[in-house]
Amino acid sequence: MGRPKSFEPDVVVAQAMETFWTKGYAGTSPADLAEATGVAKGSLYHSFGSKRELFTRALDLYGRTGSELAEGVLSGPGTAKERIRAYFVLLVDMDLDGPVRRGCLAQNTVEELAGRDEEATRTAHRIEERMIELLAARIEQGQRAGDVGRDVDAGTQALFLQATLSGLRVMARTFDRPVLYRIIDTALAGF
Amino acid sequence: MGRPKSFEPDVVVAQAMETFWTKGYAGTSPADLAEATGVAKGSLYHSFGSKRELFTRALDLYGRTGSELAEGVLSGPGTAKERIRAYFVLLVDMDLDGPVRRGCLAQNTVEELAGRDEEATRTAHRIEERMIELLAARIEQGQRAGDVGRDVDAGTQALFLQATLSGLRVMARTFDRPVLYRIIDTALAGF
DNA sequence: CTGATTTTAGACCTCCGGTTCAAGAATTCG
DNA sequence: CGAATTCTTGAACCGGAGGTCTAAAATCAG
After folding, report:
1. Which of B102, B110, B190 comes nearest A190 by C-beta?
2. Within 13 Å, how many C-alpha atoms sit on residue A78's CB side?
3. Which InterPro entries does the entry link to (chains A, B) (predicted)?
4. What are phi and psi of B52, to 5 degrees?
5. According to the model, what pLDDT value does residue A17 have?
6. Which of A107, A173, A183 sits opposite B160 (nearest CB)?
7. What whole-number distance in Å separates Cα of residue B96 and Cα of residue B159?
8. A31, closest nucleotide (Cα–C1')
9. Of A6, A14, A53, B161, which residue is the least packed, with the fewest Cβ within 10 Å?
10. What is the C-alpha separation between A80 and A86, in angstroms, rounded?
11. CA B31, C1' C18: Å apart?
């Protein structure tokens, strides 16, 4: 009963995610969201409550899709180091090949909202922790497979790689590709 | 002739820098600046022209003081690795010991303004490049002194260390001290 | 068809950020 | 001392951001 929605909520959340990712949370106005989604402001508020709530859903979506991407690439064929390199290179390439360099939404959220929005910051932090877990798991898998030394502390190494990745994604805003590739190579030389 | 300024412009710029650093560019309102500096809004505009121009001066000041700090710490006694560790630890500690974790202003500027403010982004980028130069110079000094191997490519290593530093300063927003120290140790194990 | 129910679109409202202004205050010069 | 000059400040202006509301439109049950 009642009039049916003229849009797919999941699609709108995905479009909102792109907009927040590109322009930042504060930098995205309700008018921007309406334009990006093709849904009028009033309808967005009716369906999602507020800009902040829509952002929560966008950030959750980002976490899920990012996690799936990482799992997919890391589980490909080859050694741990090869897979991790492939993943890092992919992220750098995605950032540099897009129309705008916008880094990582989780990281952007931490930078923009830490200290001002506890919940969003925690969600973004969890996304980073999840990434560390995936890296650690892949390194341990490499140790079982024999392509990573037993002496490597997988947890610490994963932590370090996440730091490198964070740095890469900041630097991808202004540095060029060869520089970023050199950073990846240097970071991976450590284990 | 004319009425003399009732404040020291350099002091006001320093106070503005602190405010921009803590709250971000967009997050800092003229009212915030007036409160932080003790100078009325109108006077700020009279003296500095606009929020944006004041920000330029604040960012320049940040670059100069940051550069001096780095030079000071890096030129202390000890090996290249010891001095770089001391510098990284100092930055992490400064961030974690402050009332709010606010990372690095240059990096925050890149994250917030890349793609929207070409000049500010370039200035921030130059600050990072300057840091890389300082790191490379210190590594080369270590090579001459014999505490760093001749086979190390100072430029690449410096680039990598800057990436680690960038990552550290993002992660310092939400991760705790032991984690950050482990990252420093792992990064420095590479040369 | 009718009534109940939900969505829609955009007008509307309020608040605040960035900026300008007008009037007064402090100083130097003649 | 008066004039010229520069600084100070609170008030006022303007636009846009975030959010609300309403009348119309679309659907379905009966």
Report:
1. B190
2. 12
3. Homeodomain-like_sf, HTH_TetR, Tet_transcr_reg_TetR-rel_C_sf, TetR_C
4. -60, -40
5. 98
6. A183
7. 24
8. D17
9. A6
10. 10
11. 10
3-state DSSP assignment of residue B152: coil
Q: Calculate ∠ Cα A109-B111-B101, nearest 5°.
A: 60
In chain B, positions 1-60 with C-beta closer than 7 Å to nucleic chain C are 1-4, 26, 28-31, 41-42, 45-46, 50-52
Contacts of B86 (CB under 8 A, 6+ apart): B73, B76, B78
Asked if residues A161 and A191 have their Cβ atoms less than 8 Å apart, the reply is: no
- Count of residues in chain A: 191
Q: What is the spatial distance between Cα A133 and Cα A137, in angstroms, rounded to a whole number?
A: 6
Q: Note the CA–C1' distance, B26 to D17, in angstroms.
A: 13
CA of B38 to C1' of C23 (A): 21
Nearest to B167 among A108, A125, A167 (CB): A167
Q: Kindly list the domain boundaries of chain A, sorted by start residue.
A: 61-188
pLDDT at A1: 74
H or E segment to which residue B73 belongs: helix B51-74
Q: Which residue in this structure is represented by tokens 């479009």?
A: A15
The reply to whether A75 has its C-beta less than 7 Å from any atom of strand D is no
Which has the closest alpha carbon to B19: B70, B65, B49, B59?
Answer: B59
Fold of the CATH domain B61-188: Tetracycline Repressor; domain 2 (1.10.357)
pLDDT in tens, A21-79: 999 999 999 999 999 999 999 999 999 999 999 999 999 999 999 999 999 999 999 99
A53 touches strand D (CB under 7 A): no
